């Protein structure tokens, strides 16, 4: 109904990995928790994974979100119950030790040793069934491993949050079910007595009479939620946008970081792709964490997007898609982005800049990825560079520029963070070491926003471990 009023002890805004784990941990400690999600609560089988239908249903704005810069970088956000966990590949990394050390020293983050996160990582890994693929490895992953091995580069299979079933052997594909937030932590939250409201967008927060009043919108109806404490877990773009709309701006939305990613579509003589898309979980770690290379989902919808730089080859794509796969190289991008609100628009303005050194790093990453692909036996490579002729052999790599050009380079990212960095350095940090907003009462951020810099690996393991650490700290110190 219009003007609906709801009260709770703790409001968690956003149901991605940060929000779902926060809400589940606090509800398990006996707190009255309301989990608020802008997107819809969809059945897990509402669409095929990694399909165009999934993009329409579960991605914010159908995946068309630009970070404006030179070049522009499209980014992807989930917008449904479970957030980004519902649309990604489920690859899982613990935070590299050198990254944690940098955050402790540069941002003065307390209690962030590996031993501090170990029990949180272990808990999340158990719930999500994080493990290596016990069955046959996708052919695209085998290609990347073969290329790395021939070049003498370090590489590894990355664990995933998948539960496997059925007859399992390395000779046959294992039946797998992705362990997203909607399959794990959200049900646990509801079983612990938590309440979930979906389809409601949080517009603004206001501190009134010792409590937080959140104004939300469901279609044309308004909803007001009154809470003792609020955790904002809406992601690295939506979280700072909400805080800034609420007049909370110190070090908020000024330091967005990401993993700028360049892609290559590889054509092989043999078939490596199937109608049912698989998640190739192999990564080249030779240059990590500065550069990471891996395999991407290569469904027909994703292949069509990857080949938009070669419109004349769409017919060939339809004929040879079973011999094609998409590979990526990402760099640790700088924290140079900003998030701002635009009058009369619900979409925040996102800007992100790359300097010449970053463009050189991307060129190095692309060149190394192409070397690995040719070493793996690729016959033709199609880099995501507009107007660039396909690469037919390793000698063609000399045509790649020392620094990629902003004019013809098509980048993207699915990893965004650092827009509200944590720590005790008040000149750099928006929140303290446990996510409490500096200068605000009972207001917390507990998602990708608080990661201090780009971690150089898939970030969701880091997000989940730190989110649970912070939630448990809050519960331990709640009056």
Instruction: Please tell me the overall pLDDT.
Output: 94
- Percent in strands: 15-25%
> Count of DSSP helices?
11
For the terminal residues, how far apart are their CA atoms? 33 Å
CATH fold annotation of the largest domain: FAD/NAD(P)-binding domain
Largest sheet: 7 strands, mixed
CATH architecture descriptor of the largest domain: 3-Layer(bba) Sandwich
Question: In the CATH hierarchy, what is the class of the largest domain?
Answer: Alpha Beta
SS-based structural class? alpha+beta
Gyration radius from CA atoms, angstroms: 22 Å
Could you tell me the number of beta strands?
22
Oligomeric assembly: single chain
Form type:
globular
Please, could you describe this protein's structure?
- This protein has 479 residues and is an alpha+beta fold.
- The chain has two domains: 1-42 and 80-128 and 179-255 and 417-479, FAD/NAD(P)-binding domain; 69-76 and 134-178 and 260-412.
- It contains eleven helices and 22 strands.
- The strands form six sheets. Strands 1, 2, 9, 10, 11, 12 and 22 form a seven-stranded mixed β-sheet that branches. A six-stranded antiparallel β-sheet has the order 6-15-16-17-14-20, with helices on both faces.
- It starts with a strand and ends with a helix.
- The mean pLDDT is 94.
